[in-house]
User: Which sequence fits this backbone?
């Protein structure tokens, strides 16, 4: 899988949802995992030819856990190769989650704390947008998580404006599947996730659940993605009620 092959769905998402405008300064959330490194690589590649001029900066939030120093150094060198400034924000998120609060399901709180740290650094750097590495599989998994654990039909949006910070969150990889990211990342540096909860989360359970469904129905994931990408096809109670109201069904 090449950069050029991934750039096609990447650029399509950017243009479908007007993610990038002339003069944007975009912070890329760089955890060091395969998704965020792919995101940074594609953003840097897009910057070279995209008609709208924009700036890039990479932000890593150090959770205060034990990272492999050689992997971290390799990632720093990779940012230099891409000509992208890297900022590392030290934090005590790991200590808060595992030592103080002793969280058994830390992912939701960790995500909020990391996002808060990313937003703070992005604002300090004068960024108006924050790019995150969520991909197509994350869309479906988040839908399942919301449905199973929260009782909601919901997933994240391609573009989200945050009123409190003035930051717009963009997710340019929503048309890219995880299997293609894995193939792309075979020769790229990554930083191993030192989180004690890695691979033991609700998201991992949902990931395995979707994989088991695909064994029975190979097209299941693509059908789910199609439903998300085309909400006009959905037929849920809220929309039915709206149509009934429009037709005066509840007037009498």
Assistant:
């Amino acid at each position: 899988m090449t950069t050029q092959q991934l750039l096609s769905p990447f650029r399509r998402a950017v243009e479908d949802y007007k993610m990038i405008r002339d003069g944007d300064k975009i912070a890329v959330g760089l955890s060091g995992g395969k998704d965020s490194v792919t995101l940074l690589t594609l953003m840097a590649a897009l910057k070279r030819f995209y008609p709208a001029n924009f700036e890039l900066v990479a932000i890593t939030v150090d959770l205060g856990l034990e990272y492999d120093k050689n992997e971290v150094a390799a990632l720093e060198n990779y940012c230099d190769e891409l000509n992208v400034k890297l900022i590392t924000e030290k934090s005590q998120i790991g200590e808060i989650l595992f030592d103080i609060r002793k969280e058994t399901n830390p992912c939701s709180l960790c995500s909020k704390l990391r996002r808060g740290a990313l937003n703070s650094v992005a604002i300090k750097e004068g960024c108006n947008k924050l790019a995150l590495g969520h991909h197509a599989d994350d869309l479906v998994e988040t839908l399942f998580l919301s449905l199973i654990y929260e009782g909601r039909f919901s997933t994240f949006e391609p573009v989200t404006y945050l009123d409190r910070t003035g930051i717009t969150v963009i997710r340019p990889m929503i048309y890219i599947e995880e299997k293609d990211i894995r193939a792309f990342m075979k020769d790229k540096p990554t930083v191993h996730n030192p989180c004690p909860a890695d691979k033991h989360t609700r998201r991992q359970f949902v990931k395995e659940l979707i994989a088991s469904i695909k064994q029975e129905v190979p097209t299941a994931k693509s059908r789910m993605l199609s439903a998300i990408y085309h909400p006009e096809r959905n037929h849920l109670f809220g929309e039915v009620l709206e149509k009934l109201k429009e037709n005066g069904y509840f007037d009498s």
